[in-house]
User: What shape does this take?
Amino acid sequence: MLPALRFVWSNEEGAVTVDWVVLTAAILTLTLVLISLLYPSLFLDAADKINNAVQQALDYS
Assistant: This one.
């Protein structure tokens, strides 16, 4: 059991994939924050449309 744990602990094959996933998530987050700061009406309009759709679905049922 101990040799298997040592192998898993020392294996770095997936490290590059994890780095890319974290980097991509950070870039996406920063982009969304920047867009929301520059164009807040985009998110407010989207939130209003979602809210209206949910209300219509609740009223329908």
